[in-house]
């Protein structure tokens, strides 16, 4: 007895069998590929919110008309300090805690002898509020080999919860 006769009865047409098997495979693949669409549904839910921004401005005047673009400390001497007042305004939409750092010292060694402090570190500032900030630059009495220097001052605010 031939294997094909044992697996397939005599009366089944081979073309018909291939067609049925092919259709079965195709339908199965379609169900697997697109079946999730049959059982999925969607719902639209309205959404709204407020964009919170952290932004601050640094000005020469309390009315915030003259932005500070640079500070010229002029002539300084060993073991001296100089104080400059600027005005910080919270121009964002949320309360912030104020911070100040220095960076990009030139020459790099200048930061070993010169320091900048201020009176507003960690002060909480509400939106649109202006505060006077005193920046104090101190020169150590041990400073040497530095005639000219420059650095950047970074003012920042972190959101207060």
Q: Can you count the beta strands?
A: 7
CATH class of the largest domain: Mainly Beta
Number of domains: 2
* Structural class based on helices, strands and sheet pairing: alpha+beta
Strand arrangement in the largest pleated sheet: 1-2-6-4
Q: Major beta sheet, specifics?
A: 4 strands, antiparallel
Range of helix content: 10-25%
Describe the secondary structure blueprint for this structure.
Elements: H1 3-7, H2 14-39, E1 56-59, E2 80-90, E3 96-106, E4 114-118, E5 124-125, E6 130-139, E7 150-159
Antiparallel strand pairs: 1-2, 2-6, 3-5, 3-7, 4-6
What features would you describe in this structure?
This protein is α+β, with helices and mostly antiparallel strands and 161 residues long. It has two domains: 3-39; 56-159, Immunoglobulin-like (Sandwich), CATH 2.60.40. 19% of the residues lie in helices and 33% in strands. Strands 1-2-6-4 form a four-stranded antiparallel sheet, with no helix packed on it. The chain has a three-stranded antiparallel sheet with strand order 5-3-7, with no helix packed on it. The longest helix has 26 residues, at 14-39. It starts with a helix and ends with a strand. The mean pLDDT is 82.
């Amino acid at each position: 007895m031939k294997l094909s006769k044992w697996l397939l009865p005599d009366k089944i047409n081979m073309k018909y069998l291939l067609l049925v098997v092919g259709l079965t495979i195709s339908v199965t693949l379609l169900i697997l590929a697109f079946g999730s669409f049959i059982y999925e549904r969607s719902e639209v839910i309205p959404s709204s919110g407020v964009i919170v921004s952290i932004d601050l401005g640094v000005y020469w005047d309390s009315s915030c008309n003259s932005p500070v673009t640079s500070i010229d400390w002029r002539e300084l001497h060993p073991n001296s300090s100089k104080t400059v007042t600027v005005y910080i305004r919270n121009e964002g939409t949320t309360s912030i805690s104020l911070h100040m750092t220095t960076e990009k010292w030139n020459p790099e060694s200048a930061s070993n002898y010169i320091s900048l402090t201020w009176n507003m570190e960690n002060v909480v500032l509400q939106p649109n509020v202006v505060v006077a900030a005193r920046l104090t630059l101190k020169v150590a009495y041990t400073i040497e080999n530095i005639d000219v220097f420059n650095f950047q001052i970074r003012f920042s605010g972190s959101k207060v919860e």
